[in-house]
Amino acid sequence: MNYRAKRKLNLTLVYVILAILACIWVFPIIWIVLTSFRAEGGAFVPYIIPKQFTLDNYAKLLTNPNGTYPFVRWFMNTLIVAIFSCLLSTFITIAMAYALSRLRFKMRKPFLKVALVLNMFPGFMSMIAIYYILKAMNLTESLVALVIVYSSGAALGFYIAKGFFDTIPMTLDESAMIDGANKWQIFTQITLPLSKPIIVYTSLMAFMGPWMDFIFAKVIMGDKVENYTVAIGLYSMMTKTTANSLFMSFTAGCVLIAIPITILFIYMQKFYVEGITAGSVKG
């Protein structure tokens, strides 16, 4: 077997494996979308493609604003928390990463080491302590508490952003300082315009967090249904008594919450890839 035939065979095997993995990955998504349009009731049926298609599952979900399962309220709660968390988290992360990348001060290296060690521990280890702190501040069962929790944890995720800032040459800062610019002017007029990829990456990660988080939101919100996020709200629909009757509406909710994240991710994908690849390599 010559080199060209061997290379063609290897590529064929690679593409076959990738196609199989892609089918395995896409199948649950297709199943959820099809189920959301299924007219037949029941959580478990012996077929994938619905016998009859309907939009009633979406209508049932969206026309119950003040009922037992106010999906629209949950959606807006999550959107509000995601927007404010995104803004605060991005500001905190970018500012901290820039300071640790560009400034030299006492205890900088020990701080970086401590932050690296803290990042190795899962966030939910601090869940009980955070709950009691919020309870002492009378902030439990509120959206403000979720914004505080998501934003305050953003600072420890500065390493990728710092790696990106490390790739920007220090000579740009030095040239600007010679021309009379101060640190703030260098940051806002030189560094930030060059940092669009990492800003988009940081914002996207911060925006996606509230949509996917369940543990912290459930602990903080307790039984206050009107302040639930979509993750807790959809989970609360799947009880022993309502699983069969609400399963199609549940899948419709899954499709609806995936739409804004998918659109945002597709639109920002170019900057996302640039941000994570540039930030993963220290210059």
Automatic annotation (TrEMBL):
Pfam families: BPD_transp_1 (PF00528). InterPro entries: BP-dep_ABC_trans_perm, MetI-like, MetI-like_sf. It comes from the Bacteria. Residues 75-268 form the ABC transmembrane type-1 domain. GO terms for molecular function: ABC-type maltose transporter activity. This is Sugar ABC transporter permease. Keywords: Cell membrane, Membrane, Sugar transport, Transmembrane, Transmembrane helix, Transport. One of its GO terms (cellular component) is plasma membrane. GO terms for biological process: maltodextrin transmembrane transport. The lineage of its organism: Bacteria, Bacillati, Bacillota, Bacilli, Lactobacillales. The chain crosses the membrane at residues 12-34, 74-99, 111-134, 140-161, 246-267. It is a multi-pass membrane protein. Belongs to the binding-protein-dependent transport system permease family. MalFG subfamily. The keyword Transport applies. It is found in: Cell membrane.
